[in-house]
Amino acid sequence: MQVLNLCACAPEGFFAKVQAPDVTPSNPDSSETAADVPRLIWSGMTHVGRFRQNNEDSFLALTYDANEVRYLGKIGESSMQAGDFVFAVSDGMGGAKSGEFASRMVVQQVMRLMPRSYKLAAQGLSSGFGDVLEEICLKVHEEISKMGRVYAECHGMGATLSLACFTPEVMHFAHVGDSRIYYLPQGGKLVQVTEDHTHVGWLRRQGKLNEREARTHPGRNRLDQALGAGQQIVRPHIGSVRHQRGDRFLLCSDGITDALWDFRVEEHLRAPADDKPRAFKVVEHAVSESGRDNCTAICVEVV
């Protein structure tokens, strides 16, 4: 694994069981054939949980190029020759339904802003992805903060964001809050790629808490950073992971990680594929184990 530190559900009607189209390159002399380009297999699911009235989680799955953005289904498979792929999870917070609104606002803003990054990649400027992703986070933060200032019912609303953008060789990510991105390399061990923006997360990274202590710490859910939520300054965690065939990724909200230990997450990612999509099984397991919070997961495999 190479990690380079450089510092969503759309409304349900948008999702159907569809497969993104494979697109043949317009350049017939290109030495890169369809067989050379990795494919992605993905699945996504969200559940309100067993005790909450509203689902404040949102997730997003889309593919895009320089010309258009296309929503993906909850499950699917496609060659990355067709364009870049974006998956995102956001967990909203706030009174009434403002948390639900905040997370949906996050994924809609991501959908609007992401295509710019494709132009950078097409020009061979992949190093600029970090700047683009940081700018997206800051613009989303600005929009949510503005809503909180203008509308009393949105006062204090905020959201997390864990976003993964897949190009044929690299997964670029942007992250704010305590949703997570996990990475299971082919033949390797599970890695939490993103850093929880909590004091407890910092203590764990410093080796002052183990996983058991972190899971029971009274301050584990207090965020140091979020999009909106009255935060003046946001410093997104931006980075990238060079992937290869056989690698698997999980994006999830804290409803999943509050319910499942890391070794359970790894078991789900290692398990062979069957008739039920991987993300569906992760969410169902989390709801059955806890269900105190909304549970959202996106699983992505490079093949």
Backbone shape: globular
Q: Give average pLDDT, whole number.
A: 87
CATH class categorisation = Alpha Beta
CATH homologous superfamily name?
Answer: PPM-type phosphatase domain
If classified by CATH, what would the architecture be? 4-Layer Sandwich
| Secondary-structure element series | EEEEEEHHHEEEEEHHEEEHHHE
How is the CATH topology named?
Phosphatase 2c, domain 1
Number of domains: 1
Major sheet summary line: 9 strands, antiparallel
Helical content band:
25-40%
Number of H- or I-type helical stretches: 8
Catalogue the unreliable spans: 1-31
Query: Over the alpha carbons, how many angstroms does the gyration radius reach?
Result: 18 Å
Structural class: alpha+beta
User: How many beta-strand runs?
Assistant: 15
| Strand residue content | 25-35%
Termini gap: 16 Å
Explain what you see:
The chain has 303 residues and is α+β, with helices and mostly antiparallel strands. The protein has one domain: Phosphatase 2c, domain 1 (4-Layer Sandwich). It is built from eight helices and 15 strands. Strands 1, 3, 4, 6, 7, 8, 9, 12 and 13 form a nine-stranded antiparallel β-sheet that branches. A six-stranded antiparallel β-sheet has the order 5-2-15-14-10-11. Helix 1 packs antiparallel against helix 3. The two termini are 16 Å apart. 48% of the residues are buried.
